[in-house]
From TrEMBL:
Residues 1-26 are annotated as: Disordered. The lineage of its organism: Bacteria, Bacillati, Actinomycetota, Actinomycetes, Micromonosporales. Residues 87-275, 298-352 form the Pyrrolo-quinoline quinone repeat domain. This is Pyrrolo-quinoline quinone repeat domain-containing protein. InterPro entries: PQQ_rpt_dom (IPR002372), Quinoprotein_ADH-like_sf (IPR011047), WD40/YVTN_repeat-like_dom_sf (IPR015943). Pfam families: PQQ_2. It comes from the Bacteria.
Amino acid sequence: MTGPVIDLGELRHGEDADPLPRPPRANGRPLRCALVLLLVLVTVASAGRPPRRSMVTMPAQIAAETLLADDLFVVLDPNPAQPTQRRLNAYRLPGGGPAWQTAVPAEGRSWGIMSMAGILLVTAYERTTTGQGALSLAFDRETGAYQWQQPGSPIRLADGNLLLQSGDEEEPVSLRAVDPCCGTVRWQLLDAAAHISLRDNGGGADRVVLNQPDGSIEVRDASTGAVLARGNLGAPGGRSPGFAQVVNDLLVFISESPTTITAYGLDRLDRRWSSTTGPVDYVQDCGPVLCWQTRSAGLRAVDPATGQERWRSDRWAWLFPYDGRLVATVLDSSATAVRQLAVLDPMTGRELAELGSWELAHFALGGPLVGVRRHPDGGLLVADLDVRTGEARLRDVLPDAAGICQATAGALLCPRIDGSYRLFEIPD
């Protein structure tokens, strides 16, 4: 069942449209916002109360770490009395019945959980006198039985194995590639680099780039650790050597004085192009274009093959590619998670639609794009965000939900104020 469609903006078509994103309009904006809000309220009221969704309530303490992994809901509950004896609880879905529970014999200030290859990996992060320490512990997904532990935080590899990274900004990075079944080390590099970058095209990392303080670079196969290319990209004359980032098939090297972005082929470090720009905050994949955010000229999008500028704008804070479009947030000073979202044409930067103000639910690669925000009467308003049509389709108002939610193809998992969770079935 599909709920009513809320038109929160306009979808633009036509070759004669302005190729640059239009600036914010001040005239008539308050009236327009009021009319849109009235339209939303009338639409919801005329549609009647949304149909009751199937939902399951599952226990969890406040500040628990959670993971929705296929047919399991996994909860790592805090234990203030015994911080080295946290409990890992698994509940079987869709009914939510207990599957198993086990103790996690580790202490940490922050935690993470991931699922892969038949195991659940719990990572404890602890600040030490020498930097940030991390320890990953593996448990059998079906029984909760303890399997192994290794130092480092986990990175999924394209070949199905794990890369464990130790170290931080204050100490060199060490790498261990391990088999997830038993923790067997396949290859390792101790004190490997000051900084690393990875290429992950959606199926796990397949390249590792080691960046040394003097600007020397090594590109390695993430599955075997074999060196594919070496080079020294540091700036001459004692200037800042810079650092590297990986974006698809490019290694992008950023040096300062002046700030220069130089692109190299990833596997051979063959130079492709170079561009001088203002100070850069980040470089990222924007689908068919390469984007970087500067403090002087705003967001720039260039052709990744030539470095030729396609478009620029000072309106957008951050963006990401989704279903052939770019989803962007409007630049503002708000510290809240609810942001004004827009859909852009990645090749021209032209604004195609406004989706409204939403907080995005966490979703897996290729998963649904779901937006949530507070409902005035309590709970969360949930909508499907369709970047192709530029529409936000109302799904439901979820009672007692407090955000931040996790989205899958057919369900939405949201925390409640008391720390417990509700799993809502969202049928098509």
